[in-house]
Design brief:
7 helices, 14% strand, alpha/beta, 200 residues
Length: 200
C-alpha cells in the first residue's frame, strides 16, 4: 500500500488538524452573539458543531453556521500548534508523499478559495499543488489519513488508508478500540506512526 515508487502516501486533513477551526468558531460566535449560550471547547462533543448548538436551542445551529460560512473565516484560521513545522518536515522526508485532503462545506461560496489561500499563506505554493478537495475521502488512495473526524464513511467501504484520529476538543473523550491509533497533537510521535506504517 504505497504511492509512486514505493513512497508512503500520507493524507492530512485541514480543519482541526492543520487549522484551528474549533477555536475560531467559539471566538466568532462569542463576538457575534455575545448574549447567546455557547459551547466551550471543553464541552464540545461530536464532530458537528452545528448539531451541538442546535441541541442547546434550535435556532443556535443556524447562528453558529453563519460564523463559519462567513467570508474570511477560513482564511483567518490560526494554524494548529506544530502543524506547519510537521508538514514542512514531512514533505522533505525520503520516500514520502504528503497531501492535504479536505472537505469543503456544502455552502462552499467562501471556503474553497479561502482554503487554497490559507495553504499558500501558511505552507507555500508547493502545498497548494498538494490539495485534494473532496466530500468523500474514502475514494482517495493512500496509506495514512490524519483526521479529527472520528468516523469517516463514503462510497468505499474499506478505504486503503489507515485512519489516525487527530485529537481535537470534540473527540478527546472517545476511547478507540485497537488497532485504531490516535495522534494527541503535532508534538506527539507522528514520525513513529509513519515509520511503523512503512514497515507493514
Amino acid at each position: 500500500m504505497e504511492g509512486a515508487g514505493g513512497a508512503l502516501r500520507v493524507l492530512v486533513d485541514m480543519d482541526g488538524v492543520l487549522a484551528d477551526f474549533e477555536g475560531a468558531v467559539l471566538r466568532g460566535f462569542a463576538t457575534r452573539f455575545p448574549r447567546e449560550p455557547r459551547v466551550e471547547l471543553e464541552a464540545r462533543r461530536g464532530f458537528s458543531v452545528r448539531e451541538q448548538y442546535r441541541c442547546l436551542r434550535e435556532d443556535l445551529g443556524a447562528k453558529v453556521a453563519s460564523v463559519y460560512e462567513s467570508p474570511g473565516f477560513f482564511l483567518e484560521l490560526d494554524p494548529v500548534p506544530g502543524a506547519l513545522e510537521a508538514m514542512q518536515e514531512m514533505i522533505r522526508m525520503p520516500d514520502t508523499e504528503v497531501f492535504i485532503c479536505t472537505s469543503p462545506l456544502r455552502k462552499y461560496e467562501h471556503c474553497i478559495v479561502e482554503k487554497y489561500k490559507w495553504v499558500e499563506k501558511h505552507l507555500g505554493p508547493e502545498f497548494v499543488e498538494r490539495i485534494i478537495l473532496t466530500r468523500d475521502k474514502t475514494v482517495v488512495s493512500a496509506d495514512l489519513l490524519f483526521d479529527d473526524k472520528d468516523t469517516i464513511r463514503g462510497a468505499e467501504l474499506n478505504p486503503r488508508w489507515e485512519h489516525v484520529l487527530f485529537t481535537c476538543c470534540h473527540n478527546r473523550h472517545l476511547q478507540l478500540e485497537a488497532p485504531r491509533r490516535r495522534l494527541l497533537s503535532w508534538a506527539d510521535d507522528w514520525k513513529g506512526i509513519l515509520e511503523s506504517k512503512r514497515k507493514q
